[in-house]
Design brief:
Elements: H1 5-11, E1 25-36, E2 41-51, E3 56-66, E4 77-83, E5 86-92, H2 101-108, E6 112-113, E7 116-120, E8 132-134, E9 142-146, E10 150-154, E11 157-158, H3 164-174, E12 183-189, E13 199-206, E14 212-213, H4 214-227, H5 241-261, E15 264-266, H6 269-289, H7 297-308, E16 315-317, E17 328-330, E18 335-337, H8 348-351, H9 358-373, H10 383-408, H11 417-437, H12 443-453
Antiparallel strand pairs: 1-2, 2-3, 3-5, 3-11, 4-5, 6-7, 7-12, 8-9, 9-10, 10-13, 12-13, 14-17, 15-16, 17-18
The protein binds adenosine-5'-diphosphate and ligand LMANGFYV.
Adenosine-5'-diphosphate binds next to β10 and β13.
């Protein structure tokens, strides 16, 4: 299947899920196998990219093959190859509905195909035989929805070991937490050299139907506020504060159950010191990508320095790791938290580390800031709207924290140097993320860092 190699190395860097944007490639290697040999012909490829900066990433790419060009799949065309004397046309298999059926069939059959192992969770029905529709939108991975019943997430970046998304969903199901979508199964792929544990290739979970994601709801609320120049957030239709409060309570419930069924450990002085070091190191790296950070660096480092001096008892536990409004779904009855994978750019090992739950709280507070201010990108010089944005962010922040504290007995948002540092660290991460993926939004986290670093 190495005939696909040249096609994939051309195509891959332009995909939304490709995390190596902006990094120079040093070398690339590809290997593949057939998951299906009959129509649809479906091959699965691993493309390993070595970067000039010394890093390495392996991406997973399923390709469907047709013996003639297919008009309906034009948008998914990767390229043509000659294989065993035949002209074959390769398509992004996640956008080729026929090629999406085998994933569930193999899960139901608990198959092993070449290096790939399919593990049904054995707890609920898997809707075998249905085709899957790709989830559109900005994603680090690629998901398929099967008939509003199940959703399969293909992990694009492979790393040895069980993905935290599978691990945590499984643990929270055992804890019977009601704020998650139950795990239905997962897929692993063996290490090519057999030296390291298999990587998680995909996860199937129950699809939460008739739900809206938090980003959509929150930004609708912000639009309502902007439309009413003279009214305050609590006087305008679409106020989001009650939902923010419920979201705080849902976050607290998930944290509580994670602490109950997964490991915990008290944080010692050394941990706080290392945390401050890690945050400084992340800032150093971010400055290389986003030089505008330099002017805020001293203020940000002062925020981190306060962490090294923390002496209060804090329990470290597993956390979500990348909690934001796009990762939560509002159903008729409450909030569901999704995607326990952590930040896509971090190593799997670091995403499994025990951490403070305040990291998640900070992630959500950053998201309120994004929701409030993203519309200012188009109108940066509108002081009235900037004021309203601040008001919206503060109102929802307070509501979220009071929901969290009512459910857990712990106020996450009192005057906390740790929370402030997590917010700064997240905004630094976001600067790199935006510079690489949505440069026109870079000003959102940069402006936040200007406020955080000046003590506002
Ligand atoms: N169980 C689910 N039910 C309904 N929608 C889901 C479910 N899981 C994910 N989604 C939708 O798919 C989107 C992407 O899923 P997510 O797990 O966040 O992927 P990624 O790791 O690529 O960001 C979410 O924003 C959500 O809208
Ligand atoms: O959902 P992913 O795991 O792919 O997370 C990545 O992409 C997110 C954007 O889709 C990014 O989130 C940032 O933008 C959001 C608005 O689009 C905002 O609500 C978040 O607060 C902000 O961090 C996330 O950081 C990145 O890891």
């Amino acid at each position: 299947m190495t005939v696909a190699s040249d096609l994939l190395r051309e195509w891959m860097p332009h995909q939304r899920w490709f995390g190596g944007k902006g990094r120079e490639w040093a070398d690339v290697a590809e290997s593949g196998f057939f998951l299906e040999r009959e129509s649809p012909v479906l091959s699965v490829h691993r493309v390993q990219v070595g970067y000039v900066d010394g890093g390495q990433e392996t991406y997973l790419i399923p390709v469907s093959w047709h013996d003639h060009p297919t008009d309906e799949l034009q948008h998914a065309f990767i390229g043509a190859v000659t294989f065993e004397g035949r002209e074959l046309y390769g398509y992004d298999a996640m956008r080729d509905r026929d090629a999406t059926v085998p994933w569930l069939q193999h899960l139901v059959a608990a198959s092993t195909v070449g290096p790939m192992h399919f593990h049904p969770a054995g707890v609920a029905y898997i809707p075998e035989g249905l085709p899957g529709d790709i989830v559109s939108g900005e994603q680090s991975n690629t998901s398929l929805i099967y008939g509003d019943q199940a959703i399969l997430k293909l992990f694009r970046r492979l790393e040895p070991g069980l993905n935290p998304d599978v691990e945590v969903h499984d643990a929270l199901r055992r804890a019977e937490n009601e704020h998650i979508a139950p795990l239905l199964g997962y897929v692993e792929i063996d290490d090519p050299d057999g030296e390291r544990p298999p990587a998680t290739a995909a996860m199937l979970q129950r699809f939460v139907a008739n739900a809206s994601d938090g980003w959509r709801l929150a930004t609708a609320s912000v639009r309502d506020l902007y439309a009413e120049g003279d009214l305050h957030a609590d006087e305008v239709g679409g106020d989001f504060a009650a939902d923010s409060e419920r979201l705080g309570a849902a976050t607290a419930s998930v944290h509580k159950d994670m602490a109950a069924v997964l490991p915990t450990e008290p944080a010692d002085e050394g941990w706080f010191r290392r945390l401050a070091e890690q945050m400084n190191a992340r800032l150093d790296e971010a400055i290389q990508v986003v030089p505008q950070l330099t002017e805020h660096a001293d203020g940000i480092r002062a925020v981190y320095a306060a962490v090294a001096g923390i002496r209060e008892p804090v329990v470290r536990q597993r956390v979500h790791g990348d909690l934001h409004l796009g990762q939560v779904l509002r159903t008729a009855t409450g909030w569901i938290l999704l995607d326990f994978e952590g930040e896509p750019a971090r190593s799997l090992e670091s995403r499994r580390e025990l951490d403070s739950p305040l990291r998640d709280v900070a992630g959500m507070l950053r998201s309120f800031d994004y929701a409030a201010r993203h519309m200012l990108v188009e109108q940066p010089d509108d002081p009235q709207r900037a004021y309203r944005a601040q008001e919206w962010a503060e109102r929802n922040r307070t509501a979220y924290c009071s929901g969290y504290s009512a459910a857990s007995g712990l106020d996450p948002c009192g005057d906390s140097p740790l929370l402030r540092a997590f917010e700064a660290d997240k905004a630094v991460y976001e600067c790199v993320y935006e510079a690489r993926n949505r440069p026109h939004w870079l000003m959102i986290p940069l402006n936040s860092l200007s406020r955080i670093s000046s003590g506002d």
